[in-house]
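Hello Y.,

Per our agreement to keep a running log of every chain we model this quarter, I'm adding this entry. I've kept the format consistent with earlier entries: sequence first, then predicted structure.
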Amino acid sequence: MGAEVTEKEKETAVVLCNGGKSAVNAFDYHGPESCKSAMLLMGGQKACTYGCLGFADCVSVCPFDAMEMGENGIPLIDTEKCVACGKCVEECPRNIITLWPDTGSDRVLLQPGQGAASPGRHAQLPASAAANVKRCAR
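Predicted structure for the entry above:
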């Protein structure tokens, strides 16, 4: 049929957020617990305009059970289960989830409140992506 099969570098979803529960809320949100719904009201409750809203829309659409909400209110990615399908990327209204090459090495463990890493349970952020994590004023 003429189509050539080529090998693609393994990718994984990466959450480029630094705030989570430590990010300041601009107002108290009392509505449907959905990131998309919260975005309809003044762009979401977080004062940080590019931070995770924390309602886990991305987690609910993952067909591979590769995401869960961390204690800090930021989604955690299990790179062993993540197949880089992109559903979480499409679902995030803040566009803070991206697909990144997963080399399996050169990882940076961000401290609590500094990103979506959880020691021992989930992969840490690739070092090449760490510079892209947004850091909000608290």
